[in-house]
Amino acid sequence: MTSPENHFELIFESRQPRNDLTWLFVVFAGLFIGSAYQISQQLLALGAIFTLRAQRWWMVIGLYGLGILTLSLGAFIRTPLGDRLLVRWARLPGWVARLRWLGWGGIIFAVALYPTLVLALMSALLADIFPRLLVYLTLTLFGALSLRVADLRLRPRAAALVAGLLIAFSYQIATLGLSITDYPFALSWSETSRFYYASLFFAEKVYGMALPPSVLHPTRYLLQSLPFAVDGIPLWGHRLWQVLLWIGFTLSAVWLFARRLRLKNSLVLWMAVVWGYLFLFQGPVYYHLAVPLMIVFAGFDAKKFWRNLLVVMLASMWAGVSRLNWFPVPAMLAAMLYLLEEPKHAIPVWRYLLPPAVWGLLGTATAFATQAAYVIVSGNDAEKFTSSFSSDLLWYRLWPNETYSLGLVLNVLLVSLPVLWLLVASLPKSRGSWAGIRFLGLLAMVLVLFIGGLIVSVKIGGGSNLHNLDAYLALWMVLGGYFFFGRFAAEISEVSTKKSALEITSVRLRKSATWPLLLSLVVVPVLLTLKSGAPFDLPAPNIVNASLDAVHQKIRYAARDGGEVLFISQRHLLYFDEQIDSSLVPKYEKIFFMEMVMSRNADYLNAFYNDVQKQRFAAIISDQALENYKDPTEEAWVEEHNLWVQLVSRPLLCYYEPRLTLRQVHLQILYPRPNVDNCTAIDDNQQTFVQDLP
């Protein structure tokens, strides 16, 4: 029987290698020109033409020159002499095998060098996409040549694909690793708030009081909470743990999926894992949401109904405590595997669909029941779990906007089109080889998740990436893997042939999985990976130390007579900074506070207004409280910013005044105003902020 992996290898055969190199040289020339343009624009923006920085113009001139040289080489290989030299180059002599150690060293060097250049040594020069792609393609070719030296059996195309995937993979890991730092303040808007919500699972140990766990993403914070079980782990250790969660859970889910594809070639298996990892990070698919995927991938067996029911219910319990839009996903994933792996044959439609219907019904019911149980056990108010239902929907974020440059629709189409091309190309043409009900079932599930993910994404507070389409991306990856490797089970009894189902799908795969198709499947996740990531713009150590000293001094002054200090942001300092001796005020932490603002929770906001009117707090730690509204046509996150200004910042600044603003570490300390007689920001009768948004 012919294996799909053998046909997979045929993709890497190139009968006209000079055509490959011609296109490669054209791409190189385009990248040289694009890089020269973007670097020159950087210099112009810096006003560097008449300064010492103008020496960098030699880089621009050099890039243009290399572009011309590349085009010349591309033209040369089209000549008979160039063709003969190319054939000799493609057939490496046997003595090269003696340099295998040099080849392995070369690929390791290429994989390590790219993230080092982009994120450290040349981060400013490689901030834009064209210079990054130029360096990436250069190192990919170097890595491909190194791999060929390491293993002469590897075809040039295959070596290039492996090198390219490994370099992108190492870069993605390195971007996560940037957060492993002892920098004491938050690295991003919500970064250290996540550690606070994780600490609530050990609240009595950490804060000396019993507190309910988080309403939002409880399973994420449960996973993050484990380092709090051990005393003395510093902030960088918690950051390291979160990076390990991102990498470990995503890789584990993809590896379990790749195992289901029964790939015997270890290189193909691990490249499928790397591709799946990059594919899921296009969302990204959060690590706590990878857990239901892992349970179903590991435990599902199309032939065992009761085992599958147990697997689905177990995964649904985790989903029920995670996110509302993930409630049906374990059952849908099981149904997808069933439709892909189990032929219908002559079974009646109702009987064929009965198992996934039962899994769906009981799995979703289990998720709802688990959430209801968590609401009771956690001690939180039930209404807080449904705050998102009253939030605004910003439909314009479906299309290009300041918050998300291409918009949700174009971005998800960009991610989806290569797999869609694969599905259309590899579906068997024989009408009897694929039962229509199976195709309709798969299509219905991905459409439901696609539309549902878009709706969730346009909720205020979202729409800046595809993470709310996580379930869609996961199932889309499953479809792509099964069809690419020909692992869907054909309707053998309905096909007028003596070939097996695997041979039928393999033949179809060989005809459809062309080199351009394979490139499209790889290029999109790689391109989106390389486009993201940049070093954190952190202040100098002396500024950080001075900022910490100033914060310590202000908090000691505010709490000298037992006054309460409210940390709206930077709440992690209560645990990780031993010099801050202040009791925790549980309410009004930034992430949940923002959720209540976006849902306009009157009870929550009125409690805050009452506290600030009474000037309950001796000091408040927050991000800089701004009073100005953003222009809806020119800036990102307009609605979120303006709503916060309207419902939080202006009322707060009416009764509190900034005493210390540390812009470089994004922190402000506010003290009660001595005179608030003329403050009209809060209506005394209604206890609500009365000024309307523009």
Radius of gyration: 29 Å
Low-confidence parts: 50-55, 493-512, 684-694
β-strand percent reads: under 5%
Overall geometric form: globular
The overall strand count is 4
Can you give the helix content as a percent range? 55-70%
| Side-by-side strand order of the widest sheet | 1-2-4-3
Mean pLDDT reading: 86
Number of domains: 3
Give the SSE order as H and E letters.
HHHHHHHHHHHHHHHHHHHHHHEHHHEHEE
Number of helices: 26
Mind explaining what this structure looks like?
- The chain has 694 residues and is mainly alpha-helical.
- Helix content is 60%, strand content 3%.
- It has a four-stranded mixed beta sheet.
- The radius of gyration is 29 Å and the shape is globular.
- Residues 50-55, 493-512 and 684-694 have low confidence and may be disordered.
Give the helices and strands, then pairings:
Elements (H helix, E strand, L loop, with lengths): L3 H7 L6 H30 L10 H20 L3 H11 L9 H22 L7 H22 L5 H22 L13 H9 L3 H5 L10 H7 L10 H26 L5 H15 L9 H10 L5 H18 L6 H13 L7 H30 L28 H20 L9 H22 L12 H15 L16 H12 L2 H17 L9 H18 L5 E4 L5 H4 L13 H9 L3 H12 L3 E6 L15 H18 E7 L4 E6 L22
Parallel strand pairs: 1-2
Antiparallel strand pairs: 2-4, 3-4
Helix pairs in contact: 1-20, 2-3, 2-6, 5-6, 5-7, 6-7, 7-12, 7-21, 8-10, 11-12, 11-13, 12-19, 13-14, 13-15, 14-15, 14-16, 15-16, 15-18, 15-19, 17-19, 17-21, 18-19, 25-26
What are the salient characteristics of this protein?
26 helices; mainly alpha; 694 residues; four-stranded mixed β-sheet; disordered C terminus; globular; 3 domains
